[in-house]
Amino acid sequence: PESFIHSDDIDVSTINLNTNTSVYFSTLKVSPYTANNTGTLFLGTLSGRLYKVNSVNSNPSVYEIGSSNFPLGAISSIDIGQNENEIFVTFSNYGISSIWMTYDGGNTWIEKESNLPDMPVRWGILHPEDINYALIATEIGVWETSNLSDQDVIWLPSINGFANVR
């Protein structure tokens, strides 16, 4: 209710990132590898655009690092591997390639959907010590791979006590 919200309690700040897009951001990821507390932020949009923001805490500089091959769909998650060059991106729409990976900071992207059924991917996470292993949360349960770096990735339903539900 309105009576619980007091304008004095709200701390709002806006940063103009100059992304030249009016589309809403659908996901974000703060890099765990930011040096000197300068802050690196990754932003994904509802229209499949991906940005890297360096020095978000002071003087932000924005770079679009997505691929022209990315689908026009909502980026649902971003995860960072063992450094900021390893970026794992998922999309949450039917009829598109839902999983993408880069090993060079976004210069080249590789589609990694392979044998995964056509379904939205809600979230993806890389193993912190093994870039080949990833888990994804999908429309029909949790799936996993142990060969993400291979050309022919094999996704399998993860049946370790998880139900096949959204």
Provide an overview of this structure:
With 166 residues, this protein is an all-beta fold. The chain has no helices and twelve strands. It has strands spanning 25-30, 41-45, 50-54, 61-64, 75-80, 87-91, 99-102, 110-111, 121-127, 130-138, 141-145, 156-157. The chain has a four-stranded antiparallel β-sheet, with no helix packed on it. The protein has a four-stranded antiparallel β-sheet with strand order 5-6-7-8, with no helix packed on it. A four-stranded antiparallel β-sheet has the order 9-10-11-12, with no helix packed on it.
Short recap of the structure:
The chain is mostly beta strands. 0% of the residues lie in helices and 36% in strands.
Strand content: 35-45%
Report the end-to-end length measured between terminal Cα atoms: 31 Å
Spatial strand order of the main sheet: 1-2-3-4
Q: How much helicity do the residues have?
A: under 10%
- Taken in chain order, the helices and strands follow as EEEEEEEEEEEE
Shape: globular
Rg from Cα: 17 Å
Largest sheet: 4 strands, antiparallel
Tell me the number of strands.
12
| Structural class determined from secondary elements | mainly beta
Number of helices: 0
Low confidence ranges: 1-6
Instruction: Give the overall pLDDT as a whole number.
Output: 86
Task: Describe the protein's topology.
Blueprint (H helix, E strand, L loop, with lengths): L24 E6 L10 E5 L4 E5 L6 E4 L10 E6 L6 E5 L7 E4 L7 E2 L9 E7 L2 E9 L2 E5 L10 E2 L9
Antiparallel strand pairs: 1-2, 2-3, 3-4, 5-6, 6-7, 7-8, 9-10, 10-11, 11-12
